[in-house]
Amino acid sequence: xxxxxxxxxxxxxxxxxxxxxxxxxxxxxxxxxxxxxxxxxxxxxxxxxxxxxxxxxxxxxxxxxxxxxxxxxxxxxxxxxxxxxxxxxxxxxxxxxxxxxxxxxxxxxxxxxxxxxxxxxxxxxxxxxxxxxxxxxxxxxxxxxxxxxxxxxxxxxxxxxxxxxxxxxxxxxxxxxxxxxxxxxxxxxxxxxxxx
Length: 196
Ligand code: SF4
Known about the structure:
It is a single chain. With 196 residues, the chain is an alpha+beta fold. It has 2 domains: 107 residues, no CATH class; 48 residues, no CATH class. The protein contains 9 helices and 6 strands; from the N terminus they run αααββββββαααααα. The radius of gyration is 20 Å and the shape is globular. The termini are far apart. The site of iron/sulfur cluster has 13 residues, from loops. Iron/sulfur cluster (SF4) binds next to loops.
């Protein structure tokens, strides 16, 4: 598929503060509807703020409240989902009495940008592109390439926009480049040393 959403509002390079503004300061029941069926995802290290907010240690936070999720070969954390014999369930921070989020000020970035509003799908694509799809990791690009066969993206999110070197992209997709490039010991020796 690999087509764009018909949206000029959001692109891969939209700054986070603009994305959060577009996500809106919504706390209505419509927006928390998704919280009954799963949870959002924290950007890298964002979850640490939650420990302070809950006055608990990071160890308790990771053990009792969070779970790891992996998408496009990238691992991040999300609030635990309480599944009762079903493949889905409510977010651990969803208050069923008030139908609101119990950690609203420190909720995950994905919850801030992609709750059930009109730009939700576009903002989800923005989150994927900025926090999960890793252009330095060939496996991440390959998994994203499969995703694009069934999903639209936003401006800046097509494969040739992520990897501008056509030859490199071809090699990644054909598995000629398997993993992240790391400098070999021989290459490292060739790097000239600075004079003191
Ligand atoms: S953290 Fe809050 S906003 Fe995010 S899924 Fe859980 S209850 Fe909903």
